Amino acid sequence: xxxxxxxxxxxxxxxxxxxxxxxxxxxxxxxxxxxxxxxxxxxxxxxxxxxxxxxxxxxxxxxxxxxxxxxxxxxxxxxxxxxxxxxxxxxxxxxxxxxxxxxxxxxxxxxxxxxxxxxxxxxxxxxxxxxxxxxxxxxxxxxxxxxxxxxxxxxxxxxxxxxxxxxxxxxxxxxxxxxxxxxxxxxxxxxxxxxxxxxxxxxxxxxxxxxxxxxxxxxxxxxxxxxxxxxxxxxxxxxxxxxxxxxxxxxxxxxxxxxxxxxxxxxxxxxxxxxxxxx
Length: 279
Description:
By secondary structure, this protein is an all-alpha fold. The protein has one domain (2-272). It is built from 12 helices and 2 strands, in the order E-H-H-H-H-H-H-H-H-H-H-E-H-H. A two-stranded parallel sheet has the order 1-2.
């Protein structure tokens, strides 16, 4: 066990904020940066808790949308005449969250152990890039968020489960599924952010007890360092959301796919030459 420094917590909080919403896998970047710069792993629990900061950024950024959806959902429960698109989206978010909650609990140990292997992360970074390319190739982008269906929500919910594998990317998996289903990029990413809220908040709260308990594996952060990293993740994450929604309105996901291939290849080379250890 190695104590985390304040500089390390600042770097990791920044990395979390920058990469949580971009389709490049925040968990992969947290793992890679930890190994390259600090020669150790910050751990899955530290990553999960700092994600609370980025999810707070989502709550603030989409506050008006969230309040509107919650009000419509609550009103629609008791009045069938008020069951419009916002009411349905409320149910869609709930239903889309169920698969990842179940699988996340069932595979907690695997996520925190074998899921941290850099070979796996590098390979998934590369392989899933081709899913992005295929999604863009076959996307019709003919539907907006107001045309979201139950089928879309369920498929995107199952796609979100792939994010349990570091290197896939939560937003990348769900947005790709949305593009395959005919949603436009902004709608796909917006719903991706909405269904991530309960899943990531739940994961972060569930991991709180582990993050503050000393272990003999990886970097050990203090309570203050975790709080600092989470605050930084919130600030940087908020800016990242605003930038990403503007970017995807005019640019394809192929830009992120190219970056992922390059990063994954570099990591494989570093692993093959013994510069970094796989786990």
